[in-house]
Structure formats: C-alpha cells, structure tokens
C-alpha cells in the first residue's frame, strides 16, 4: 500500500510539472484549469462552428446559383471541402502535440481561417470574380460555369478556410479537456465527461445559430454579407479564447509523436528472432528493481521491441533497438483503436447526405411557413440542434447520473456503448429519408403536389440524436486512451473519420451514377432535377450499408473490450519503474529457431 501511495504522489508531481501557464512556468491547480478555463474554449467552439457551418451547409446553393456548377459537381465540391477540413485535422493534431502546443496552434490557424472567410466575402461581393448572373433551373445549359481566375480565387478562399478550421478543430476539444487533471484529482473524470457533453452543447448552439440566423442573412442579404458574418463570428471566437490565456494549463509539445511509434516497429523487426517473454515480467531498465505488471496479449510481436539482452557487456542499446514497455503498450493502443475509428466512416457518409442532397430535397418542397415567410432549405439542419440544446443538458443532468448508479461507469454508459447506439440510429435516419423522398417524388410526378418541407424533419431529427451519441462517445473514447502527449492527434483522428466519410460519399455518388446509368438514361443522381433522379434508392442503399456497418462495429467493439488492458497499465508501469523486459541469457540462447 505504501508503494502505491508513493506512486500516486509521483504521478501528481509528474502531472503538475508537465503542465505550464502562459509564461511557461509550472501551472498552479488553484489558478489554472478547471471548467472555468474550459469555458473560454467552449466559447471559441461555438463561434467557430457558427462561422464554418453557415458556409458549409449553404455552400451547395451558392455553387449552383452563383458559380453555376451542376448538382453532382456541387455536391462533390461540398463533400471534398468538408472532407479536407477533417483530413487537415491530422496536421493540426501533429503540429500541436509535436511542436506548437494546443493554444498556439489554435491562434495561428484561427487567423488563417479568418482570412479565408474574408476572402470568400470579397469574392462573393465583387461581380468580376463571379460568372454572369443566370438561372440554373430555367437556363442551366446556357449558364457559364466559373473557370480560370474566378474559380481560382474561390477555391483559394475556400481551402484557406479548410486549412484553418481543420487545424483548429482537434485542438479546441483537446485544449479544453487538458484543463482537467485526472491524475491529481480523480473527481475530474466526471467533470471531463460533463465537459464533452458541454462541448457538444456549444457545437449545437453554434450550428443552430448558423442554420437559422446566418443562413437567413445569406438568403436575404446575399452570400457576401453571409460570409462576412462568418468572418465576424470567427473573430469573436478568437477574442474569447485569447481572453482566457491567464487561466489555462497548457501541455507543452513533446517533440515528434511519430518517432517513438516507428522505433517500436523497427526494434520489433530487428529482434523478430527473439522469443517473446512471459506475460508476467520483472525488472526495470537497470535490472535493479522488481515488480509485476500484466501485459496485453494483443499484438504480442511488438513485445520483442522491449527485450533487453544481457550478454555481459555494458553497451547501451539504441532506442531504435530497445523500447520501453509503456512505449510498446501505447503503440498497441493506437493500433487497437483503428477498427473503432473505421466503423464511424460510414456514419459520416450519412452525414454528408444531410448537407448536400437533403438540402436539395428541401428546395424541391413547399418552404412556406406563413404568407410572408419561407424557410431556407439549408435551415432544415437546425431541426436536430433545436432538440439537442434541450436534450444534451437533460442527458448530462439526469440520464448520466441515473445510468451511473446502474452501470457504475462515470459517463453513465461506456463510450463504446454510446458509439454503438448512435451507429444503430443512423440506419433509421436513412430509412426515414428514403421513405420521405419516395413520397415527395410520387406526389410531384403523380398529382403535381409539392408537399410541405416539414416532411423532411424525421431524418434530421433521428440523425441529430445519432450524432450526439456517436460523436461525443468517439471523442471521449479517444481522449481517454492512455497515449501520452497524443491527445490532440487522437482528437484529429475523430475528425479524420468525418473526412473519410465525406470522401466516401463522393466516391459512392460517382460509382452509383456509373453503375445505374445506361446509354439512354442517366444514373440515379445524374440530373439536376430530383424528380428525374432516384435519390430514394440511393438512400435505401445507404441504409443497408449503415446496418452492415453497425454489425461490423459490434464485432470490433467486443474485440476491443476483451483485448484491452486496464487503463491504468501505463501508470502502473511508470510507477514501478518498469521499462524493459530483461533476459539474462546470451542472445544466442534466446533465438526462436522457427522464425526465419
């Protein structure tokens, strides 16, 4: 027991020394961190998503009406843009963990994103940077598509926004979560769970304002004013996050996060002929202290990277030949989360449809709410967020404590259970979308009736609940993995799932068009007129894919749960000074003759 208490004190000291204030001095738990510091980051998150969502969710309308791209090309531009944002999150996570730290990465790329919004506003305002005005519905074949310098300015502005937003997103979540010291204060684990729910609440509020107020401004005042308001929102977010500078506890960068990972694979390869040691091992890097730690059985070939062969000499092995136990276990953790990450890609392919084709569905429906007010189709996506701004606080205040009493889990249900519930619900979102589109199309072609836009509500509502479960569950699952100094990069991986999902959407659209087209007839999604397309069949296809993906997830979630070590394995190993396997035999005695 005394040894355990000594370990805890060591961890407390280690944790305190490992976070600094804005001047680089050790942080003070009484002055730095906590929910009050995280609130500034939540403010940035709300303003940032407000700006980017207003652009992304109504971008397809701008591309068709102002830039004169076709429906399928516009849909692919939107999905590629959003996909690029989330792919660039990996760059933001790497730069943060390795070189800049979360705070300075946020500031640097926040200004990059702001410059992109400003350039978009300028491009949308100046007639000489856009094609001549033309009605794509009545004169589609006669309309001039944006090309050359006009297209160049637009795409430069668009991808400045993508670069900035991509690098900012993972660091917002990670920087906010870094304000909670789980090692020193175990009670912060519950607060961290609350923070993740609060982050989604801030996200929902930003989305709601973007999809109502900002989209209304874009529709009635013009896209140039709308893009300008997005720029103003981003500027406000930067002001808020800078205001909390004095209160943050910052995790300094640790150098390249990839080098230790590569070292494990190289060392394991070089010692591939060594016999794996027993699961219960003794000794530390000096061979002077003993202790026990249970190693994970998964990916046991990597354990050879931390075999230290004592051949009688005092030669110190290179870190490319000898790795620590903790280092190897962290690589195992990184590999083991990849299947969980992969299962959320299809989920985000479904999300892509709600930001592209579902908006076009709304455009083909009766948007009139009153005699003088029409609902902008892009504002349809606000429906789930209206519900979620009430549901998320209720979930955190009532469901989590209730479920915690039953399960004993600090988050009510485990992150893996939360992800699975969301993936299951996403299937029904596509079923609802398919049924509604069939009704809309049959009414338009049969009686000529244009049904109310409110028929589209269920698919957005179901997916909103699904996203709350999956997105927050995935963030919490990744952040709580025992990977030292890689939290921002892991947050980036969750956003990377969005990227792959949106890219997969583009591939599916092109593939479905190619397979379903014939010499005399276009594919399901080849026309700019939804009454001629078969969007309902495409939605049914996505429903089937989503359900198969859910079954696949159940397999990998069960595998992960059974193969994972205790989440405290890393702290146990560090606390006992355990760093390497020690083999006291000569190297020639520990060769496995069955390995070539």
Automatic annotation (TrEMBL):
GO terms for cellular component: membrane
Keyword Transmembrane: yes
Keyword list, A-Z: Membrane, Transmembrane, Transmembrane helix
Chain ranges passing through the membrane: 33-55, 75-95, 102-122, 149-168, 198-219, 225-248, 333-354, 374-395, 456-479, 500-517, 537-556
Gene Ontology MF: a single term: transmembrane transporter activity
Main location: membrane
Membrane topology field: Multi-pass membrane protein
This protein's name: Major facilitator superfamily (MFS) profile domain-containing protein
Source lineage: Eukaryota, Viridiplantae, Streptophyta, Embryophyta, Tracheophyta
